[in-house]
Design a protein that fits this description.
Elements lengths: L1 H28 L23 E2 L6 E7 L2 E6 L2 E2 L5 E7 L6 E7 L2 E6 L3 E4 L3 E7 L5 E8 L3 E8 L3 H4 L1 E2 L6 E2 L1 E2 L5 E2 L2 E2 L6 E7 L2 E6 L2 E2 L5 E7 L6 E7 L2 E6 L2 E7 L2 E4 L55
Antiparallel strand pairs: 1-2, 2-3, 3-4, 5-6, 6-7, 7-8, 9-10, 10-11, 11-12, 13-17, 14-15, 16-17, 17-18, 18-19, 20-21, 21-22, 22-23, 23-24
């Protein structure tokens, strides 16, 4: 019997020790505040590429969302049509309108205000609003290297859509404020200008009328009412000032000579070869593979949807 007691004693000690530990835990926890029993709600996964852009007026916003394998644009809270790709959001000057590139089934469009589509053949570049927002224009790709300029009045796109002839190369021009674009429009959108390159000569095209050829075109601007235009061009060592395609002055060797004869477009004094004249500002061919680097509020073409670098939409 004493031996049985000796065997039971260790077991009783273990049980007693366990009970003490349990009571100690209960005692320590009785004054602890109850834990938050609200169920944890899983957060919604972040939208892929959730970049939001504000217009210049600080009120209008645009961003894109992915739906399955397609994309749609949210413009001021309203969702547009779904496309295979969307890219290159461009605001009007006052920030109240938007246009962007879209592509579905190999067909490219410029979508205006998330509702109207303009066919852009295989690709659209350099979407441009007129200053008053009444007109939109862009360069469209047609074939491997042909380009057409398409423009329309936004309130009546179907009836006012215009297309230029195709060109091998539409180049970049600078307006009177130093802004670079393939298209320059008058404030009201009634006049449209662009620069083309043919046989190593540069031409200015205004409302379909082509100027004579130059070595370089330095700048271009419309008057405030759009009734006239002025640009500077370079031929050899001569820098010409041209209004409505008529030469009004020519600078060479630091001197200026008035040109009263509109047919005389060359300077008679070309002997000084030490003068540094402005370099070309436009000679960047619009690639059929990838756009030229755009401003930060714009974007390269639809290849960005596949993870291209430099994309910001």
């Amino acid at each position: 019997m004493p031996k049985e007691k000796q065997k039971m004693l260790p077991i009783l000690l273990i049980v007693l020790f366990s009970v003490l530990i349990i009571f100690s835990i209960i005692w320590l926890r009785k004054d602890k505040p109850a834990e938050n029993t609200v169920p944890i709600v899983a957060t919604k996964p972040a939208i892929e590429n959730p970049d939001i852009f504000f217009a210049s007026n600080g009120k209008n916003t645009v961003y894109k969302i992915k739906k399955g394998d397609q994309w749609s644009v949210i413009w001021n809270g309203t969702e547009g049509k779904t496309y295979d790709f969307v890219s290159n959001p461009v605001f009007s000057a006052d920030g109240t309108q938007i246009a962007y590139n879209a592509e579905i089934g190999g067909q490219a469009y410029v979508v205006v205000n998330n509702s109207q589509e303009i066919s852009a053949y295989q690709k659209a570049n350099y979407i441009t609003f007129s200053k008053d927002g009444s007109t939109i224009a862009f360069v469209a790709t047609k074939g491997d290297d042909n380009y057409v300029v398409i423009s329309a009045e936004i309130l009546n796109i179907t009836e006012t859509l215009k297309e230029s002839q195709s060109f091998k190369e539409i180049a970049i021009a600078k307006d009177g404020n130093g802004n670079s674009s393939a298209i320059i429009m008058s404030d009201d959108g009634s006049k449209l200008a662009y620069v083309i390159k043919e046989n190593d000569k540069i031409y200015v095209v205004v409302n379909g009328q082509k100027s004579q050829g130059y070595d370089d075109v330095i700048s271009f601007s419309f008057s405030a009412d759009g009734s006239s235009f002025t640009y500077e061009a370079q031929n050899g060592n001569s820098v010409l000032t041209i209004t409505n395609n008529q030469v009004v002055s020519s600078t060479n060797s630091g001197s200026t000579t008035n040109q009263n004869n509109s047919n005389n477009t060359s300077d008679t004094n070309t002997n000084n070869s030490n003068i540094n004249y402005p370099s070309a500002t436009y000679r960047y061919k619009i690639s059929t593979q990838k756009d030229i680097v755009r401003d930060q509020n714009q974007l390269d073409f639809s290849g960005c949807a596949d993870g291209g670098t430099g994309c910001n939409f």
